[in-house]
Design a protein that fits this description.
By secondary structure, this protein is α+β, with helices and mostly antiparallel strands. The chain has two domains: 14-78, no CATH class; 82-233, OmpA-like domain (60s Ribosomal Protein L30, Chain: A, 2-Layer Sandwich). Helix content is 36%, strand content 12%. A five-stranded mixed β-sheet has the order 1-2-5-3-4. Helix 3 (82-92) runs antiparallel to helix 5. The radius of gyration is 29 Å and the shape is elongated. The N and C termini lie far apart (91 Å).
Length: 252
């Protein structure tokens, strides 16, 4: 009888190389998946910065923003970035922030602008001070370029009102409405995005126990809300008559 062939124990040697290859392919496709989504808002910011930095001159040509393909889900809903609104606000009202005339607070779903009482309204009045109008013009420019609803909220201290208004509720609501009317006067903002709310003295920032604290509680807040619907990420332009610009209907 011939001598029986003794085969080595364990898997063949080629299985080691094959296993390494499969591991590398798995890592490669995991990396592809991690790069499969793009934030359009951030893409616009980066593209605009590069264009300004290199002085690119080009014809007005509208190109689609590249969107990553989500392998898990085909519905691509880009997240709304509060940071982008915050940067626009800081850029537009940088001088007022340095002077301390405005406070800015960024939360997870909104950005709050706090306008101090001494630059907006005289005591006990809902008539805008002239010095506040250039600031409100800058804020209007911000609203025109960012999506989402904007809530203008009036706040007072606990000092009883005298004269025209029956209560602090009436005064705070009137002040909020005055600011909204001023922002809408050029018909460049969709009125459906705006809201005027009066809180009276019900939401103080600090205790009303000193003149300084009362002055801090007298304020107007302009709140930029995060859109809850992905369809509202785009700002709808208005014409000079205050009518939404619509895309032309296709002709047969």
């Amino acid at each position: 009888m011939g001598k029986k062939c003794e085969c080595p124990k364990g898997a063949p040697m080629w299985m080691v190389t094959f296993g390494d290859l499969m591991s590398l392919l798995l890592c490669f496709f995991v990396l592809l998946l991690s790069f499969s989504t793009t934030d359009p808002a951030m893409y616009k910011e980066v593209a605009g910065s590069l264009e300004k930095a290199f002085g690119v001159q080009r014809e007005d040509l509208t190109l689609d923003i590249p969107k990553g393909i989500d392998i898990v889900s085909r519905d691509f809903n880009p997240p709304f970035s509060v940071d982008i609104i915050l940067e626009k606000i800081k850029s537009a009202i940088k001088l007022e922030l340095i002077k301390g005339e405005i406070d800015v607070e960024a939360l997870s779903d909104r950005v709050i602008l706090r306008l101090k009482d001494d630059i907006t309204f005289p005591p006990g009045s809902d008539k805008l001070l002239d010095r506040s109008k250039p600031l409100l013009d800058k804020i209007r420019g911000i609203i025109e370029t960012v999506p989402g609803e904007v809530s203008v909220q009036g706040h007072t201290d606990d000092t009883p009102v005298t004269g025209t208004f029956e209560s602090n509720w009436h005064l705070s609501a009137a002040r909020a409405a005055t600011v909204v009317n001023y922002l809408l006067r050029l018909h460049t903002i969709d009125p459906q995005r705006m809201a005027a709310v009066g809180f009276g003295d019900s939401r103080p920032l600090v205790l009303n126990d000193s003149p300084e604290h009362r002055a801090k509680n007298r304020r107007v807040e302009i709140v930029f809300m995060q859109p809850s619907n992905p369809d509202d990420f785009e700002v709808k332009p208005m014409d000079k008559r205050g009518i939404l610009k619509q895309e032309p209907l296709p002709m047969d």
